[in-house]
Design goal:
The chain is α+β, with helices and mostly antiparallel strands. The protein has 3 helices and 8 strands. It has an 8-stranded antiparallel β-barrel with strand order 1-2-3-4-5-6-7-8. A hairpin with a 2-residue loop joins strand 3 (73-78) and strand 4 (81-90).
C-alpha cells in the first residue's frame, strides 16, 4: 500500500511538471517563433484569368519566406526580392493586418495558426472578375 501511494505521488508530480512545460503559446508567439516557408496559394475562383494569376503567383513564390518579428515588422523574401513592412494581429488573432513599406495595406483572415502551419485567407473584389477568395499556405 505504501508503494502505491509513493507511485501515485510521483506520477502526480510528473504530470504537474509536464502540464507546466506544455504552456500554450500565444498567437503572436506562434507567428514570430520561426521563419515561415511558402507552400502554395489557392482560390475559389473558376475564372481562367484568375487561375492563371494564381498559377503565376505559385511559380513566383516558390522558395519564398516570411519572417514576422516581435517588434511588429515583417520581411517577405521571394524571387530574389525583399518586401518589408509592419504587421498586427487584430480581433483576438483572427485577422492579420499588414502594411508594406510602399504603403500597401492587406487584411487577411487567420484560418489556421499552429507551430507548424499558417493559413491566411483574403477576399479580392474586382470590377472585372467579381469577388473571390485566395488562401495562402505557409509551413515551418
Amino acid at each position: 500500500m505504501k508503494s502505491i501511494k509513493k507511485f501515485t505521488g510521483l506520477f502526480l508530480s510528473l504530470l504537474f511538471l509536464f502540464t507546466l512545460s506544455c504552456e500554450k503559446l500565444s498567437d503572436e508567439d506562434l507567428l514570430t517563433d520561426h521563419i515561415w516557408r511558402y507552400k502554395e496559394i489557392t482560390t475559389n475562383s473558376t475564372d481562367p484569368n484568375i487561375l492563371s494569376i494564381i498559377s503565376l503567383a505559385n511559380a513566383l513564390m516558390t522558395g519564398a519566406t516570411m519572417d514576422f518579428k516581435k517588434d511588429g515588422t515583417f520581411t517577405l523574401s521571394a524571387s530574389n526580392q525583399t518586401e518589408t513592412g509592419t504587421w498586427e494581429l487584430l480581433n483576438d488573432g483572427k485577422i492579420l493586418y499588414t502594411t508594406t513599406s510602399g504603403g500597401d495595406d492587406d487584411e487577411m483572415t487567420v484560418v489556421k495558426l499552429t507551430k507548424d502551419e499558417l493559413v491566411l485567407q483574403g477576399e479580392e473584389v474586382s470590377s472585372t472578375y467579381g469577388t473571390y477568395s485566395v488562401t495562402m499556405y505557409w509551413i515551418k
